[in-house]
Design a protein that fits this description.
The structure is a homotetramer of 142-residue chains. Helix content of chain A is 22%, strand content 40%. Chain A is built from 3 helices and 9 strands. In chain A, strands 2-4-5-6-3 form a 5-stranded antiparallel beta sheet, with helices on one face. A two-stranded antiparallel sheet of chain A has the order 1-9. The first copy, chain A, has a two-stranded antiparallel sheet with strand order 7-8. Chain A starts with a strand and ends with a strand. Strand 3 of chain B pairs antiparallel with strand 3 of chain C.
Chain lengths: 142, 142, 142, 142
């Protein structure tokens, strides 16, 4: 079963680029982050700032992230971005982001995030908790 | 005569906010910068990365910028932004950005930029040059 | 009586610069912000993340900020920065930042911030409160 | 033979942190980037903005980067960072960054970069070129 994919288009701005005229690498991780929030909003129908309350969690913190830079993305480039959950596990999941320019894959990003809540015994402690089945179901598309 | 106003809507992302949950001030200057590029694209029909070549200039560098923070803008807020040139002078101009949330003005920004080209005598030197009349005319709207 | 001045030196990094090879304007507001926190730490002997608790305040939010760009600051430039409170008022104050490269003033920044605490009657509300005299005294130097 | 390790200490600023009060992930990639430039400066005695000219290259672009977040790094945390080249290959190399707080490893980063120059036949094309032996030798320490 295919995973729900969120697509958006963005244009690279002056302030995102470095002296070589290409997107500075850290900016891509902001773009990945926004892509994940928007993917969740599109799949679950919950706005990013309401996600934690809606599901009784503390958040979906990043524990691992990787990016491959295949082609430079330049000032003014129009980027087609596709974001999807590539795997759900019990309390963690992977998000894959693919950024293309003119039909050519330019950057691949892979995030691993955890579905985190506060401990009932000790509210100072947070930890991974089971992702609800109905959350996962909403990311499955025919 | 009224000045052409570019309007866009943006939603505040997690990574733009500080530990108080509000947009970190430096992020607003990125938002102003993008607003100016988009205003020029909308008024002149020239993409940001083609602006310099299209008009034979080096760029439109910022020489002065000011922001007033009237109300905090928070994670998830939907911001209505209006950008317009408030004054054209011979070789410099002012851009005014107004950001509102729920109809209430939250942030005002004012940029002063210069229309800059390379000296014909010494290409190492750049300086302000006269803004073409037809550029200015395109920012005037009935 | 002269105001206590905090001085630091910083070197401009690749990721702070735009395609023109100069510091992107929003980055300077981060540099001002850090300068203010470090000025307060140097004057008061309190670390930035302990400032709110140490003085029973919510923070020192920015309400107005302005920058003048006199000369471009480039990748690799060594910047001498001097930060000082230029004026204390009852519940607000101004911080002036001066950034020089090779002895030439390149950027001037001026922040206005408020000494803010929660209302005793309604902890949801925050507002300006009187800056303690002994705080102000620590910024005065012979 | 051990690889030369560059160590620096940094304190996490307000503007680097997100609404959870911890360093926003993209900021760590800026910190890695600065760490690599400083490592090269320390090993080779060449300032970052002079590196390309000093070695007749276009730069050392990033092609792959990964980060593991083991513990959150918070506003005010004092971070000990150690950066070293973990492997040199013919025209590419890996840099490892380890960030610790209070002696506990908090973040690991791994960058892969390429030693890139312009083609002699077609200056529009750039590509990996052999890293000089004397560059590599300077990263080896007894």
């Amino acid at each position: 079963m295919a995973s729900f994919t969120f697509r958006r288009q963005l244009t690279v701005g002056w302030g995102q680029c470095d002296p070589a005229g290409i997107v500075f690498n850290s900016r891509l991780f902001e773009i990945f982050d926004t892509g994940t929030w928007q993917l969740f909003e599109a799949a679950l129908g919950v706005k990013p700032h309401e996600l934690a309350n809606a599901f009784g969690i503390s958040g979906i913190p990043l524990v691992d992230v990787r990016a491959n830079f295949l082609r430079p993305i330049k000032f003014g480039d129009v980027v087609d971005m596709a974001s999807r959950v590539s795997e759900f596990r019990r309390s963690s999941f992977d998000v894959e982001h693919r950024l293309s320019v003119g039909g050519e894959l330019a950057v691949e990003g892979n995030e691993t995030r955890v579905w985190v809540s506060r401990s009932k015994d000790d509210p100072e402690k947070i930890g991974g908790t089971a992702i609800p089945d109905d959350v996962i179901a909403k990311f499955e598309s025919a």
